[in-house]
Write a structure and sequence with these properties.
single chain, mainly alpha, Serine Threonine Protein Phosphatase 5, Tetratricopeptide repeat, 2 domains, Ankyrin_rpt-contain_sf, Ankyrin_rpt
Length: 206
């Protein structure tokens, strides 16, 4: 199965399926395994990935032995085009939790990737509510890693467009007042790191 996961050619894929109609099902049945989609994600092979995800959508959410989904692997290897293609197919992929509860949104927030952060939050605004095993949202992570610009970008999406003014205000307060596992709010983190610009923003909304 390990060598099969390295198949990159669409014709070779169907040759394997002709020999074993359960070829892809074998990956699905095993927990924590590198699927062909994981391999394609590392390489940024868009054509191959689109063929695999069409046949086996479940692979997009499957974690490998290291606790990473295909989107996590694509991000780690700077395969931006493939990441955007996968998110376009299923926006909720930005919410898939890998090891330590880290989602693709958390990853780009830590890196300060403004472009992908904007794309992810536009595709799935509710992903801003997701927390890691440490209770951190993407906003917590951005501040802890001195990514103030990423924090500001995420902050502009806090007001969900589908909510009325009063509901939006309540939503804002809930998100911005969330505490991580150590009991830190966004204001606590920003103040402790002397991030004056960032600390003034959450204070405005809390």
């Amino acid at each position: 199965m390990e060598s099969a996961a390295q198949v990159r050619d669409v014709d070779a894929l169907y040759e394997l399926i002709r020999h074993d109609r359960y070829f892809l099902d074998n990956f699905d049945e095993k927990p924590f395994v590198d699927t062909p989609l994981h391999a394609a994600a590392r390489d940024g092979n868009v054509e191959w990935s689109m063929e695999i995800i069409r046949l086996k959508p479940s692979f997009a959410r499957k974690l490998n032995q290291d606790g990473f989904s295909p989107v996590h692997l694509a991000l780690q290897n700077d395969q931006t085009q493939l990441v955007l293609q996968l998110i376009d197919i299923d926006p909720d992929l930005v919410r898939v939790q890998g090891r330590e509860g880290i989602t693709p949104l958390h990853f780009v927030s830590e890196k300060g990737d403004i472009h992908l952060l904007r794309e992810f939050l536009s595709a799935c605004p509710k992903s801003l509510e997701d927390v890691t095993n440490k209770g951190e949202t993407a906003l917590h992570i951005a501040l802890k890693n001195d990514k103030v610009e990423a924090f500001d970008q995420a902050l502009t999406t806090v007001r969900p467009p589908w909510l009325g003014p009063e509901e939006a205000q309540q939503y804002n307060q809930r998100i911005l007042n969330l505490k991580d596992r150590d009991g830190n709010t966004l204001l606590h983190i920003a103040t402790s790191k002397s991030q004056v610009q960032a600390s003034s923003n959450p204070h405005t909304y809390i």
